[in-house]
Amino acid sequence: MKRGLAGYFYELPPELVAIRPAPVRDGSRMMVVDREAGTISHRMFRDFSTFLREGDRVALNDTRVIKARLLAPESRIEIFLLEPAGERRWKCLTKPGRKMRPGAVVAIAGTEARVIESLPGGERIIEFLAEPDLEKHGHVPVPPYLKRESDTGDDDRYQTVYARLPGSVAAPTAGLHFTPEVLACIPHSFLTLHVGAGTFLPVKTERIEDHTMHEERFEISAETAEALNAARRIVAVGTTVARVLESRKEDKLEACSGATDIFIYPPYHFRRVGALLTNFHLPCSTLLMLVSAFAGTDLIRRAYAEAVRERYRFFSYGDCMLLT
User: Fold this and answer.
1) Which member of 184, 206, 269, 289 lies 3.0 to 4.6 Å from 265 by CB, making a disulfide possible if both were Cys?
2) Contact 104/138 with Cβ under 8 angstroms?
């Protein structure tokens, strides 16, 4: 892949987009890419633990996806919650935007929503009369490329089994393959990064370094920092974990919380992550650029071409890739 945006495009037959998850969580295929040897092999995710070495520590993102889509069928208004912006206030996307100008009020999710402010990027600050009951009125924000509405199956499967802290509007999808049984037999620690809607946005600038990266909130506990500092190799589950760990500049990890807008693309040198489990990503996405930085653009291009030939399932509900 080249440095310019065109180098991160690939052709994907539409039938390879996974519209639904695999019948069981750990039943996905797993492509194994050895960065040093430049080899590609084909396994199942159930084999994941066999690739761990003595002294490895698996790092996972325990964020929980909120039911961020609120619908008002009578007025045909949709409010997509992005992040809290104060008491009963949220930063949101709205549809259609022309109906949701400052001062507009809509009955939605068992309460009322008033537009307080329109932001330069098109988002709205919305104040609710009462905090909406998302479990009762919200809908799981499945990715737009699924081209379907969410259903009760997504309530469970678009959530990791270890999801704990609510705050994401997209799942950390590399973690969707794990079961309690898999977790029980591997050394692991949790950190938190709340995934924002920006994770689905493609890069549109021809010079990728001109892209403005979205910011996401994170937290690392003292217990996790200590465990990861002691590891011989950190195995990051997902690009979200990789971004948190690589955003920390101190020699040793410390307990901390904050936000990161780190944008990782070639020829970035990884300081902390030694192996990466990840799903297959959209063309021209920042996530594809991150894995290209980790394994090398040529090797990732070859791996993706083989994944298409071997009919792997792509994107959030699809198969996974282990980069060692």
Assistant:
1) 289
2) no
* Structural domain count, the chain: 2
**What are residue 60's DSSP bridge partners?**
190
Sequence-ordered list of residues with C-beta below 8 angstroms from that of 212, at least 6 positions apart, any chain: none
Same domain, 195 and 208: yes
Mark whether 233 and 262 lie in a shared domain: yes
What domain range includes position 202?
A: 5-65+143-323
Q: Provide the angle, in degrees to the nearest 10, between the axes of the packed helices 239-247 and 286-295.
A: 70
The CA-based diameter of the chain, rounded to the nearest angstrom, is: 60
User: For the domain that residue 34 is a member of, what is the CATH number?
Assistant: 3.40.1780.10
pLDDT block averages, 10 residues each, the chain of length 324: 77 97 97 98 98 98 98 93 95 94 96 96 95 96 93 97 97 98 97 88 83 92 98 98 97 96 95 98 95 98 98 98 98
Q: Which sign does the torsion angle of CA 312, 314, 317, 320 carry?
A: positive
Euclidean distance between CA atoms 146 and 100, whole angstroms:
26
pTM of full prediction above 0.70: yes
HEC-encoded secondary structure of 111-176: EEEEEEEECCCCCEEEEECCCCCHHHHCECCCCHHHCCCCCHHHHHHCCCCCCCEEEECCCCHHHH
pLDDT in tens, 35-90: 999 999 999 999 999 999 999 999 999 999 999 999 998 889 999 999 999 999 99
Amino acid, single-letter form, for residue 212: T
Half-sphere exposure of 219 (CA within 13 A, CB side): 10
